[in-house]
Amino acid sequence: MFGFLKPGPKAAKREPAPEWVTVKGGFEFPLARHTTAHEGYPIVDWEKVRAWVDGLEPQARRAQAWAACERAWLLRFRDALGAAFRLDEADGAAVVSSLEPNVARATLEFIARTERRIGAVLKGIVQLAQWGKDILIVFDDGESYYRYVSHYYPETGEFAFSGGMHLNSGCSHFVTVKNDLRHLEATIVHEMTHACLEHLPLPLWLNEGLAVNTERRLAGAERLPLGALEELHDKLRRFWSVVSIQDFWSGHAFHRPDSQTLSYELARIVVEQLAKDWEPFTRFVLRADRADAGAAAARECLGLDLGAVVTVLLERETPRSWSPDPQKWEKQ
Asked: Residue 91 has what pLDDT?
């Protein structure tokens, strides 16, 4: 007599990505018609989405419509990445990845927890998005990651490598590469900090300095031994000069492979020092403008010249030429 194997549990049916987005009241939007492909990944015309959403009433319906468009796009992104990828969701977060289900759940919980913690650490500075979820897309490898983010870069130029990015070309989302959870958490904190600061016209050095310090505080970082700290300080002193410091203030140095790491480290140190007195620092951040690298706000709110701050930290003399000079940026 032959026995029969009992059928195993059925795999959950994969939810199809909708062509149209529909919200209560019969309002519809043809998302597929306003989606193009870049390197095989779906790029939505979010201006068209925003125009449709803004025409809806009441406010709650607009929020629902925006969230529905985000979700439909993420399902299309999931399909573009391959059969191993899922869309995992929580109340305030969504993750597209091939992470193990338990790791994806932990990541969703970490995202929700991180948003609250950033609000507490950067009290009086951050602003949270009114609509949609915190979205994270985790690519399996660097090649697919860079193929997608190339859509947001100019066609020519020299660009430094990155392990994660906050993109806000219409729909705010974070992208990173699959890694161990500790590195993933650090990327999430860093990029979520940028998202919480995007309402401010911050100079890049201040934006990155805030993100790096918040990342170190909330995600932890291994402390360098004394010898390595001294070596790093020597590298900073050798690299930064009256000429190269203008690349720091303008933000150009953060995008070049030869100066990126030292730019982040200098930004971290400057922000760490300025933030020791939180109330005036908060006023400074709220008034800082990228047009002059925050120089006027530093004088007004902190009573400090940014050039003098940097030269003290680097143990250099303090000529005025270390201060932000936008006229020199135009020549670069």
From this structure: 87
Domain end residue (candidates: 142, 173, 199): 199
Claim: this prediction has a pTM higher than 0.90 = no
Instruction: Mean pLDDT check: name the lowest of 15-29, 147-161, 208-222.
Output: 147-161
3-state secondary structure the chain: CCCCCCCCCCCCCCCCCCCCEEECCCEEECHHHHEEEECCEEEECHHHHHHHHHCCCCHHHHHHHHHHHHHHHHHHHHHHHCCCCEEEECCCEEEEECCCHHHHHHHHHHHHHHHHHHHHHCCCCCCCCCCCCEEEEEECCHHHHHHHHHHHCCCCCCCCCCCEEEECCCCCEEEEECCCHHHHHHHHHHHHHHHHHCCCCCCHHHHHHHHHHHHHHHHCCCCCCHHHHHHHHHHHHHHCCCCCHHHHHHCHHHHCCCCHHHHHHHHHHHHHHHCCCHHHHHHHHHHCCHHHCCHHHHHHHHCCCHHHHHHHHCCCCCCHHHCCCHHHHCCC
Cα–Cα distance for residue pair 74/113, rounded to 1 Å:
22
Q: Are 126 and 138 contacting, i.e. CB atoms less than 8 angstroms apart?
A: no
Residue 18, preceding bond cis, omega within 30 degrees?
no
296 and 229 co-located in one domain: yes
- Supply the pLDDT for residue 240: 96
Q: What one-letter code names the amino acid at 329?
A: W
- Asked if the structure places residue 109 within a domain, the reply is yes
